[in-house]
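Tokens for chain A. Residues wanted.
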């Protein structure tokens, strides 16, 4: 993605140089990676899943005591994130204005190790997530190295842009009342039916990420969309379950299959039309 020299958002809180003073997951292996991947697009479900998976990793933890200065690479990554967030601000502000609405810009928090949010405490194991309580996106950028080097997703900076835009999709759902309606609709439903609604919410966020990419075509490089689709493929429920437990249980899906995630991102990218994000009508 072309980003050097472009506008950077002021709505980024960079806490990476601060002491977290909390527990972070260490070690690694496939379970550690799965903890990250299963929550990468977790939205409001991220923190419910993480504790269960952390137990599988063997409860390894360490204390983060001191602040770590940012390297030149860290600073460059932060600048890139600020440009991606600025692009989201510009595009969604325009779309909302055209529909007679006002887009409230969210804050994006970069952290390392652990972080406190209005939705509770979270560690790096939560992966990137959106907290509706404070309307902030939280990201530990070390996740993307794990995604690339240990789980096989394609490298490249656009995977980061995709994830940010997916989490902004959850912010849009909060602004439009979709998240609240989904939670209300889950009440009294069986686990399987409630999970289908969660899948619809996640796939709609994928769709919104595609819509953002549609309106940002002038800044995309060759291969960017393939990078996004590779990341979507890696974090499908079926792909994760197959690697983690050797079997696939569709009724337990909360985020959608690899095929679904790629399909809805591509649909958003191709159409650029928010009205076509009809995941709740189509995921039954």
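Reply:
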């Amino acid at each position: 993605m072309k980003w050097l020299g472009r506008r950077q958002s002021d709505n980024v809180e960079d806490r990476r140089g601060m002491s977290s003073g909390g527990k972070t997951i260490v070690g690694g292996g496939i379970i550690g990676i799965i903890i990250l991947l299963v929550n990468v697009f977790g939205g409001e479900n991220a923190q419910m899943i993480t504790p269960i998976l952390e137990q599988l990793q063997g409860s390894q933890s360490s204390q983060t005591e001191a602040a770590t200065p940012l390297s030149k690479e860290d600073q460059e990554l932060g600048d890139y994130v600020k440009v991606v967030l600025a692009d989201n601000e510009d595009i969604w502000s325009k779309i909302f204005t055209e529909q007679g609405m006002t887009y409230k810009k969210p804050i994006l928090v970069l952290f390392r190790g652990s972080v406190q949010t209005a939705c509770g405490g979270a560690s790096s194991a939560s992966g990137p997530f959106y907290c509706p309580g404070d309307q902030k996106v939280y990201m530990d950028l070390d996740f993307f190295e794990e995604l690339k080097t240990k789980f096989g997703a394609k490298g490249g900076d656009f995977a980061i842009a995709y994830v940010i835009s997916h989490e902004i999709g959850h912010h849009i759902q909060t602004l439009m009342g979709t998240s609240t309606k989904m939670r209300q609709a889950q009440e009294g439903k069986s686990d399987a039916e409630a999970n289908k609604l969660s899948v619809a919410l996640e796939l709609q966020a994928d769709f919104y990420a595609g819509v953002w990419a549609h309106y940002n075509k002038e800044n995309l490089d060759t291969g960017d969309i393939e990078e996004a689709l590779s990341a979507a493929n890696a974090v499908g429920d079926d792909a994760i379950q197959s690697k983690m437990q050797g079997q696939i249980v569709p009724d337990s899906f909360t985020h959608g299959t690899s095929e679904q995630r790629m399909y809805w991102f591509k649909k958003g990218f191709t159409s650029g039309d928010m009205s076509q994000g009809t995941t709740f009508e189509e995921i039954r």
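The first strand starts at residue 12 and ends at 14. The mean pLDDT is 83.
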